[in-house]
Amino acid sequence: MRLLHFADLHIGVENYSRTDPNTGLSSRLNDFLSAFDELVDYAIETRIDAVLFAGDAYKNRDPSQTHQREFAKRIAKLASTGIPVFLAVGNHDLPAVPGRATALEIYPTLNIPGVYVADTIATTTLNTPSGVLQVIGLPWVRRGSFLASHKTRDMSLEDINTLLRTRLTESLAEEFKNLDPNIPAVLVGHVTVEGATLGSERSMMLGRDHYLFPSAVANPLLDYVALGHIHKHQIVSQSPSIVYSGSLQRVDFSEEAEEKGFCVIELDPTNLPGKRFVSCEFKPVQARTFLTIDVTIPPDDSDPTQRVINSIASKHIVGAIIRLRIQVPEELESMLQEGAIRDVLSGAHYVAGIQRDVLRSHRTRLPSEATKDLSPKEALRLYLGSRSTDLKQTNRLIQSADLLLREELEGVSEDGETPKTHNT
């Protein structure tokens, strides 16, 4: 039995975007849909038995009609080929007001064959080409709705999250009791599990997160735990495998080094519980490249613009989202020709910014208390010492300064004549 696990599609993320002249849509929307198309085509061509989506189809709780249409097209394409699709509701799929429909609720409302939506904690049985599969759905839960029977008004947020964690763990334990040990079983959830490495999803969170301990989802009757909500692909633990597939596209530069894709899981239904898991393979997609280019200009550089251009030329920038960070000495900043630099960056998909980190000249200042009683010559000697000037140079400068001071005091110019005064 082969399963496909993905999550955090976030259709609607349009930062670092431009309008596609052919479609009129955001170029970043096309990025997310292209990655989704890769997944759909893979599932159909390799005959995946079931697709498991662990939440957050959209960026916003109220997705546009265009975003809903594009997501539905691809879900319908999967279902029309006989692949069951299981969708867990994520926090970005929930409306802000209780009682309103979730972004995924249209599927059970229309009773579309082969598409299942988990908006409550429950177990669903899927009939796949390779046999029956039990799926426990763990959607994102609202604190207020889930804890409605508890008096939480006087509780701190930490205490509320602790209570929520306890209730969720108890609810899952009830579902585990009802599993048939003779049938493969997985859990599909949108939740933070303690020990997972967080990423850009922090900036996209719609409130303070609750979390579960790994033990809450690591039941021996489960053959695999498919999670969403964390954008970085990672295996939290094994036996059973608790896995975040990660998101399908990079959201910002914090995900620059992360591979994006989905997971393909193989189970052997003929084995006993705890022995059915065969493998989990991460399949990268062609996600949009994010690239940071750092350039440091040395103080003796005669052509800082060319150095920046050479650094850009050494990178593959075509089609990438670029940010350029230039560290430049103060005295060379005016020599940077931003127009020429932007011309070289014209092959990029988007230039997120050209940042200049100007290195200001360090000016040594002596404490006023240490210098107020010094003669000019003593103050100069102290200053030169603070600049680590060698003794020979110090003496030469002191002599020159002594001469200038003496001339000033005597009121004599360099040609030996007394300066004339002018009456006003």
From the structure above, extract its key features.
17 strands, 29% helix, elongated, alpha/beta, six-stranded mixed β-sheet, disordered C terminus, 424 residues, 11 helices, 3 domains, Purple Acid Phosphatase, chain A, domain 2
Strand content: 15-25%
Number of strands: 17
**Main sheet specs:** 6 strands, mixed
The top-level CATH class of the largest domain is Alpha Beta
Residues in helix, %? 25-40%
What structural category arises from helix and sheet content? alpha/beta
How many distinct folded domains? 3
Helix count, DSSP H or I runs of 4 or more residues: 11
Global morphology: elongated
H/E topology pattern: EHEHEHEEEHHEEHEEEEEEEHEHEHHH
Radius of gyration in whole Å, from Cα? 33 Å
Quote the distance from N terminus to C terminus: 104 Å
Across the major sheet, the strand order is 4-3-2-1-13-14
Which CATH architecture of the largest domain is right?
4-Layer Sandwich
Q: How would you state the average pLDDT, rounded?
A: 88
Name given to the CATH homologous superfamily of the largest domain: Metallo-dependent phosphatases
